[in-house]
Amino acid sequence: MTKNVRVRFAPSPTGPLHIGGVRTALFNYLFAKKHGGDFILRIEDTDQNRYVEGAEKYIIEALNWCGIPFDEGPGKNEKYGSYRQSERKSIYKQYAQQLIESGHAYYAFDTAEQLDFHRKDHEAKGKTFIYNWHNRLKLSNSLSLSNEEVKAKIEAGEDYVIRFKAPQNEKLHLKDIIRGDIKIDTNILDDKVLFKSDGMPTYHLANIVDDHLMKITHVIRGEEWLPSLALHYQLYQALGWETPEFAHLPLILKPTGKGKLSKRDGDKLGFPVFPLQWEDPKTHDISRGYKEDGYFPEAVVNFLTFLGWNPGTEQEIFSLEDLVKVFDLNRVNKAGARFDPDKIKWFNHHYMQEQPESELAEAFKEQYEQLSDIDVNYIELVIGLVKERATFVSDFWDLSYFFFQAPKSYDEKASKKALKEDTKEILNAVIQLINDTEDFTVESLQTNIKGWITTNEIGFGKVMMPLRLALVGALQGPDVFDIMFMIGKPETVKRIQAVIKSL
């Protein structure tokens, strides 16, 4: 690729960043880094009515947590002025005016009530109201009014918008990296508003102007923007600018595969749809985040990459560095990608195994007050024994509580299975074996107890099941001899005596 690749992620600060937005940012980041280019964050806050306090900060923190920080953006390498659209509004009016002067746009004075009347009138006739070539000369705009009338309305301070004049009877031939060739009949296009009555541009104008001024070479965005491609393409042509290459990513679908994954689906189905926890500044409602739910950023990134993309091989585990090397927009699918909550857990389990046990021990200790007085080195050894069965740090307690405290009760079903008439006699013999074992190591315990079982021709289950029950309180956990070694001889004997007493 000869030109310097520049891509942008341009979210609106209207709330927390949805996981679909994170995937869009990730694909932009991977493409930019693959080609040695720049990844830009631009905050598209032209709709001030929907602005939510704290949303911009959340977006930046989410990108940083995922390990995909921007190269340019608010407060960082601002080469092209502010990267918040609300602080660039003086820029857009001149381009809207340029479009009017070139005949590609016009003033429209229709009130909300007038437009609502036309919509209802069309609905009553079984039609859909579209503001475009077939009716614009009948409506209140600078195409149907004289220059004097237009000037008088503007000078009188009447509200107006600026609309793009969609051409009639033309065929557009557009190209999308993912979708291929797209043909559009301009007769079906409406005259979109480019500039609003509040003095702010709409997304359509602002994003085109900013992409041009910030030298964006590739626009990689969600499928929901595909219907706007024709307008954006025409705006580039009307302004005489080189058009960037476009790529529209497939939708992320609900786990059922039907419908787009929404912000509400997580609460309904029991999984996060946001990278970080979010507290609504007005209602103070809390929405779950992948970070707070115990997911590793590597797992989230690896999972999201496979929502709509595949490497063309069977490999599923990729580091971010590996993804940069192999990522290719030509391998992004057109069809929607089903969100699978179990698959992201699978990824998290994998990355759990790669985490240093020292770091996991610190995190585990922080989460559980009952571990505050336990030596972190001991916790680290415990984690080494149970990590393989864990998906989250929060799983560790259920997998290892018996390393830190004696059973408070015994699982009823396990007791019926493990405790027999001769269990008391067997466990007393095991206590004697343990007391006679001077070298209290896993190997010595294993050799002595298993040797005794074999010599006395006792079924292994008759010994090992009640022994595990005594140590754990249930028939679960890692190797019995590892548990005995970790909790020590006195505690081991004490727990066996306790289960004998319960008999």
UniProtKB/TrEMBL annotation:
Motif range ('KMSKS' region): 260-264
Coiled coil location: none
CDD domains in the cross-refs: GluRS_core
PROSITE patterns given in the database record: AA_TRNA_LIGASE_I
Location of the motif 'HIGH' region: 11-21
A cellular component term, taken from the record's GO annotations: cytosol
Binding site for ATP: K263
Pfam families named in the record: Anticodon_2 (PF19269), tRNA-synt_1c (PF00749)
Reactions it catalyzes: tRNA(Glu) + L-glutamate + ATP = L-glutamyl-tRNA(Glu) + AMP + diphosphate
Example of a GO MF term: zinc ion binding
Function: Catalyzes the attachment of glutamate to tRNA(Glu) in a two-step reaction: glutamate is first activated by ATP to form Glu-AMP and then transferred to the acceptor end of tRNA(Glu).
Family the entry assigns: Belongs to the class-I aminoacyl-tRNA synthetase family. Glutamate--tRNA ligase type 1 subfamily.
Name of the molecule in the record: Glutamate--tRNA ligase
Organism of provenance: Seonamhaeicola aphaedonensis
